[in-house]
Amino acid sequence: MKVNWFYIKVFVLVGVVLFLFGFAKNRNEAREIVDTKVNFEGDANLFITADTVDKLLIQKKVGDTAQGKEILVLSELEAKLDANAMIAEADVYRTIDGIIGANVKQRKPLARVNGEAPFYIDELGEAMPLSPNYSARVPVIEGLARENMQEVMPLLQYIKNDELLNEQVVGIKRTPSGNYRLSTRVLDYVIKMGKVKELDSKFSNYKAFYQKASKDKSLETYKFVDLRFRGQVVGTKK
């Protein structure tokens, strides 16, 4: 009977590959966690510290009782980080040399709402708690209830994306009737904006007024700048 050495060699080779794969997998899973690595994406201003993320990743300190990688479920660690009020998204990974790492994207506040219990409004229009580590330089809103957060979002996004308004506007006040007033960083007047609608038209008119008044050096003479009237700006002098 003729022996087919080709099939035997293939069978042996597959067996060796499976053995090496299983050996490497078991060795990797048994490797102790020796360190953690946290990377914050984007903004360097930290609402949550790397130490806090470390504690969420591994509850015991490095060097304590060894924790094998097999007991670390990455999806569960990511869920734990994602549940933190300061984190928008987290990607957790592990390396073959015993490091558990996390790429962390923080939530970004657009405004701070003052009240009995102050909070931020983030880019998704959701409430975000204040951080003991860092205070964001964003407009402060007065008179806004949580049920009106979506109402003010178009205004906040417009201010954030507009260079002039982002530099000028430091305060926003909502009246009980749903009208808004804006206070500026340096200029001593209040902008009466009205309802959160027709923002392009209103702020285009405001910029035309601002450029003319800057040229005339009359900005400091105004007490109110009213944008509520279509196609025009009404200035009230002091």
Q: What can you tell me about this protein's structure?
A:
- The protein has helices at 5-30, 50-57, 74-82, 149-161, 163-168, 199-216; strands at 35-40, 87-94, 99-106, 109-113, 119-122, 127-128, 140-142, 169-174, 180-184, 190-194, 222-226, 234-237.
- The protein has 238 residues and is an alpha/beta fold.
- It folds into two domains: 31-106, Ubiquitin-like (UB roll), CATH 3.10.20; 109-237, Rossmann fold (3-Layer(aba) Sandwich).
- A nine-stranded mixed sheet has the order 6-5-4-7-8-9-10-11-12.
- The protein is elongated, with a radius of gyration of 29 Å.
- Mean pLDDT is 83; it is low at 60-71.
Strand order of the largest sheet: 6-5-4-7-8-9-10-11-12
User: What sequence of helices (H) and strands (E) makes up the elements?
Assistant: HEHHEEEEEEHHEEEHEE
Tally of contiguous helical segments: 6
> In the CATH hierarchy, what is the class of the largest domain?
Alpha Beta
Overall pLDDT metric = 83
Number of strands: 12
CATH fold type of the largest domain: Rossmann fold
By secondary-structure content and strand pairing, the structural class works out as: alpha/beta
Major sheet summary line: 9 strands, mixed
CATH architecture of the largest domain, by name, is 3-Layer(aba) Sandwich
- Looking at the structure, what is the overall shape? elongated
Distance separating the two termini: 112 Å
Beta-strand proportion: 25-35%
Bin the helical content: 25-40%
State Rg: 29 Å
Which spans have pLDDT < 50 for at least 5 consecutive residues? 60-71
Task: Please give the domain count.
Answer: 2
CATH superfamily of the largest domain: Cell division protein FtsQ/DivIB
